[in-house]
User: Fold these one by one.
Assistant:
Number 1:
Amino acid sequence: MASTSDTSPFQGFHSQEGLAALAKEQRLPRTGWQQEVDQGRALGLEAADSIRDRNISTFSRGELPHFAGINTFLKAPYLEDVHRVGHHDVAVIGVPHDSGTTYRPGTRFGPQGIRQMSALYTPYNYEMGVDLREQISLCDVGDIFTIPGSNEKSFDQISKGVAHVFASGAFPIVLGGDHSIGFPTLRGICRHLGHHKVGIIHFDRHVDTQETDLDERMHTCPWFHATNMVHAPARNLVQLGIGGWQVPRSGVKVCRERNTNVLTVTDITEMGLEAAARMAVERASDGTDCVYVSFDIDCIDAGFVPGTGWPEPGGLLPREALKLLELVVRNATVCGLEVVEVSPPYDISGITALMATRVVCDTMAHLVVSGQLPRQARPSWIQEVCAPDVGQAWR
């Protein structure tokens, strides 16, 4: 390999210090789009002489072109060293787990599918006037190392990973994975809540409140076990979009016994989106310090999201779901988001993964508009000390 001479225009620009020096030399701001351009040119080589746009590099770096490069969510930087996650406002975490699926597997490919479709997006939303690259620092930490065939070992891995990100002060966004991960993700958050409490707003067609399914904690069971934790009272669980022919009576029985809050699609359409969202935020926030949002993609009518394990006709329309999400996120103190049950093997042209991408991007934008991101200081409900034994013992 040929050595780099001292006169090379790229000498020293492989480090953050070198990049800063480059920006200073060229009098360029070190934020947003221009920062990405600087980094792309420094790390990806100056473009060939025939290229007139000198913002283009030889090797693809950053957002453009959308069809090239390594897929992270929204082309965000991949953070290999997770010890540095607290330097970012938001961290995307993939959870490729579908061992909790009871019928149609494939959600282990959900994080890959969502990241791939997110390449279609830019970080700017015209309607909201939000540019995620300019207004927050986003990273992708890659995937949790899950253990195929073992829900419990995977749950332990998921809880540890989410707890690490949450405790750092970065806002965790989890890409599932089947919905069994709802319990370990919330358990990870509860480990750093101290004496504080969390409410749950759960978008879904199914209640997911059975104790077991096929004798294990499956994707029909997360909220039974989550609400066993003292940090997540059952009365602060609000479920939006429930209905159809896939809501088991055993789960309904648990909801009634624990006094959870269930709004069907009919309830929501009859009372109106604003009233439904207001009720959800009030119930989830009553006596709690923050709210966790769990968005199962199958809450949306199956005609719009075929790529999921348990599609159910008659769900929310996409615009209804997105409006509900807006009203919830802008009016609640949100501590994390998960988007689950995207199953690319059943998808058509990636439209289900694209919907998941929209949910994630909209959530980040609403957090910016409502002033929740970027955080000015660590929220009082995030405790540095980890309490690993917050969940009920299992077998």
Note: The chain has two domains: 31-69, 73-370.
Number 2:
Amino acid sequence: MSLSALERSRLETAIERITETALNLGLQPFPMRYEITPVDVLYTIGAYGMPTRFSHWSFGKAFYRMKMQYDLGLSKIYELVINTNPCYAFLLDTNTLVQNELIVAHVLGHSDFFRNNAYFQRTPRDMVNRMAAAADRIRQYEREFGTEAVESFLDAALAIQEHIDPSHFSNPGQEKDLSEGTKGPGPYDDLWALDREPMVDEKEEALRTVMRQIKERADARKRGKRPEKDLLMFLMDNSPVLEDWQRDVLTIVRQEMLYFWPQLETKIINEGWATFWHLRIMREFDLDPAESFEFAKLHAGVVAPSPVQVNPYAVGLAILEDIDNRLGREALFEVREIESDQSLLRNYLTKEIVDRLDLYLYQRVGSEYRVVDKDWEAVRDRLITARNNGGFPYIVVIDGDHENRGELYLRHEFEGAELDLKYVEKTLPYVHALWGRPVHLETVVDGLRVQFTCQEDRVTRRFL
């Protein structure tokens, strides 16, 4: 369902008014591009994570799960916003005007956060183009080596995609492309760039560059042996069985995960910031009673508490409002610039906020779940711990030549939360496929050190 001319005109007027208000309040978003999309398109982008990305069955699975929840009325995505410059926001074509007004104010908050938060400063702002080029390379590999071979390799790569080290962030390709000449930017450059297809020799040169960088890193790593957190990079550099195209696919998966990583580290503060500003921007307008009721209902849904998990919108909003009230607007903008979820919770989550939001710790006792602690410091510390490493287990490579047999030895840096053992047994065979030889993983189970060993598809365990 597309918007009528009158609806589109009203939305354009609202966007101009909301943007002007946001700027007057001190926000500094990227230039914005808004797209009105049908539900299938919006949920496809949500499942893939970007409007341009390589294909994989897991994205299709995510799409059908999300779409089914929408069809059954269990959940609804109203918008999606992409960390790019210009910043792209996608609005559902069935949204009402008030919904779109709230969403525009919300995504302006996200765009301001993307632009100014320290954790996003090294993310490439042209990631739509980069992902499109990467998808083209992977399609070429499917033509050369077969769809099944590429899909199987992506299964293995995506199974461990979160095991990277953001401190190794590299952002190649940001240098000025001299082949483009010296003309100034034009108003349609972002559109022309989407249509530009890399030439064959450019693709080959890009792959040669990747291979050269991989060799240089491997040589440097051999000179200074130490535990390595970046499992993807270690496999790229050192696996004896990977072909060049497979190393390139690992490079693609790793670079895309580096792009998404800051969003994992800032979920609470990012959503809290956007919610803080959509609330204040909408308060600047004279809504009629029906519009006020609709807005209040929408906002209440955004910050509604959950009995089983933390609502990042509610927690982030509560902390940021407390900072604004106690320390002032200047301090609030400074927090937006330098904090992650962990530092925000550690520095600014107070007993009053924990009590007001009724946050608590619960765990399974026998056959049921029970509240086990409501002490505010225990709640705060558990929330901080849960945000370690983006919420994923911290696993390091200890040795790529374990006992001089060329076997890979990994260690889980145990911080109180045990690994999901079913996931371990499903994932280790993928690591084995990428390494080509037996893989060992040391972790803690029930307070005891345990070593899992994978030889092809067979996973065994022993106590250490």
Note: DSSP finds 18 helices and ten strands in the chain.
Number 3:
Amino acid sequence: MSTTNSATHLPDDPPTDPTTADDGRSLRRMQFGWYINDWANAAFSATVLTVFLGPYLTSVAKDAADAAGDVHPLGLSIRAGSFFPYTVSFSVLLSVAVMLLTGTVADRTGRHKELMCGFAYVGSLATMGMFFLDGDRYLLGGALLVVANISYAVSVALSYAYLPGLASPDERDKVSSKGWAYGYAGGGLLLIANLALFQGHDAFGLDSGTAVRICLASAGLWWALFTIVPMLRLPSRAGIAPSRTADRTKDGEPAAGSLRELARTLRGMREHPLTLLYLAAFLCYNDGIQTVVSQASLYGSEELGMDQTSLVTAVLLVQVVAIGGALLLGRIAHRYGAKRTILGSLVGWVVTLALGYFMPAHQPAWFYVLACMIGLVLGGSQALSRSLFSHLIPPGREAEYFSFYKVSDRGTSWMGPLVFGLAYQITGSYRSAIISLLVFFVIGFAVLLKVPVRRAIEAVGNPVPERL
């Protein structure tokens, strides 16, 4: 890892392999900046996507609905209760193109940090704008969600590209798990403050709607303030080695633009079918994970009859338990390997989903049990998936490959919300919607089981860690 700071780190001067870095203090400084980036953006995932926006935007949409309970964005007739999951799905479809193009630009120019922080600030401003979401302004809420979620997806994808340059192969599970733990700690800390505000809104002279809008805006402010730390501590370029193919075409001429580079990336990925097989498994099972997380508050409020205080308390439990879960599964992976640990966590997700389907309504204690089960497997399954994928990326193409990876990650799944929304559209039952997500875990487990991880790592030319 290069010991130059962010002010002097040039795009054509990439960080070196962390295993040969002489300055351990500089490496730890950069790792801390990367951890704080998770601390910063997790507020959007926890406060906005997971807790407050789903139920609140749904209530705003219902206020704007016609006598049949439908709203009509862009001339389409949809149930008001499906507006939030449909909007999440739409935002992710748009973010795919933005992530892929931005990842290509980042690897080509070496401006990973500038692009990452730039999108973070666009997303934080859109999130702060949610303070103005009241009355029947469901279209404003949908537009702000689209902008914020696209910005969040791109920023996080670029941050993931730093992982190979921040840890040796055998340390990556540990560093990735620690990053997720920081994220859940940051998101949880803000949720504690928001829970206090929401529960005591009368004492502050606020109605519940105003309190929710302040909580939404606070996530944007938190995101903006703590993004200053990675701005100061991370180098401009992510990864271990420069992207030589990103700088030159095969005949030695300068690359002819980002779209051509993107096309070359897509063609190049076909040369690594085992990496694509792992990516397919991840996109499937993690879409299920993210849909459970993003729709849990909607399911709890509409199907199980939980009030806002119970929802916030449950998500706070998820945040707290997920810190320990991420670190625990990281230790298990150190002993048994990341792939086996991820497979075991997917079995835990199936059990959790079944419990949610049969859970009685108006029983907060059972809802809290469900929250603890989600937290136990959530952080670890995602942290280990991220670190395992980092081994399967050709050096110098981190941002591009992680842009594909980020198609299904915190807050950016699209297949799951679409299936969830359609299931509710057809049946009118959120229980049917939640159980429909089982297919993602079953298929993801089956595909991951077939991935020969050691051969996949060797195929891209990366060193193989001792345990897989």
Note: The two ends are 24 Å apart (CA to CA).
Number 4:
Amino acid sequence: MTTPDALLARLLELHPKRIDLSLERIERLLAALGAPQKRLPPTIHVAGTNGKGSTIAFMRAILEAAGLGVHVYTSPHLVAFRERIRLAAEGGGRLVADPVLAGALAEVEKVNDGAPITFFEATTAAALKLFADHPADALLLEVGLGGRFDATNVIDAPVCAVITPISIDHIEFLGDSIESIAFEKAGIIKAGAPVVVSAQSDDALRVLERQAARLRAPIFIHGQDFLCRAERGRLVYEDTQGLLDLPMPRLPGRHQIVNAGAAIAALRQCLPNLPFGAFERGVAAADWPGRLQNIRRGRLAALAPEGAELWLDGGHNESGGRALAEAVADFEDKAPRPLVLFYGGLQTKDAAGFLRHFVGLASEVHALPVRGEQAGRAPEEVAAIAHRLGLDAQVQPDAEEALRALARRVWARPPRILIAGSLYLVGEILAANGTPPE
């Protein structure tokens, strides 16, 4: 059988653009596949700029803690493509096996018969076919980009839509204002289906409320219809159905409290009879690789200075930088250490917007290349941006050499090292460390 990598390489060649937002091509392909999008388990559709994956991780953990089978579709992957597709299984979902993935991709390639289609459209069609053909109690479906014309937006009747915090990103595809981006995200709202809205700016919220009203979709808004907060070392969630006193998430950072709140609100809307114990166990167990992940073992971890902390996060835009800086500042309040920031990003991302949140927080910045990605921003440019912001910055050829350089120095207190930026960089780090997502 042809390997998934060989099939994926061929599918990548079927369209001259990586991204070409439209539903026409995938609708044609899905019709030829027997319309699997009409045979999906109850589906929760998730859009937003930041926090989509973490919100889905909370929902999956809660649902699985209740004994339910859950399919999950997320993107992009960090190390291997199969991370994008998780199939329900007894004892908890599993990443799709290579032979199963290869079979679905081969069927898509055969049915498509060389017609123009983007990589994401083709692979989304393969995922939907797998989700339709394998039984599950629920499907958690993450938007790839935007919402209105995203390939996942072929579903007609989700049991719930979730819109996580919206900020400026992907302006070349979604527009350069919060309102235009929110309009694209609002495209996943469907007539009559409840929509849970996480923390938003007033400008974004107005757009989402207007679309929900137009489609008569019940809307549940963070701060109005539900609240989630940390209180005395516990996670307290409250809505019109009552209050939940839960353990704090294992995922660190204030932003994860917001994400957990959206996840709980969505599940309480579409599955009102979930037991309290599922929320209690799920919130504490939820995990999401590359999001403030503490790297304690592995080849790269062994290169860090003795006693150092090593953290990894895929935050790359301005709002991601703000959330990440807040989390690291909380770490600093509890256990002070010098913060060393490694950063590598894409040319399309606001490096200055990200880095400015670390002024006065990071003692130094090490700029890294994003290997294998044509849109990677040159580390020399990143260092220059950091210098203009008043940050002490230098260029490194890779994370390994940067860690070795830190290990050669004498530290009065072992540093806290944060590697952040593009998810491509996160994947490179996890692969080099020998700890890919499971």
Note: The mean pLDDT is 95.
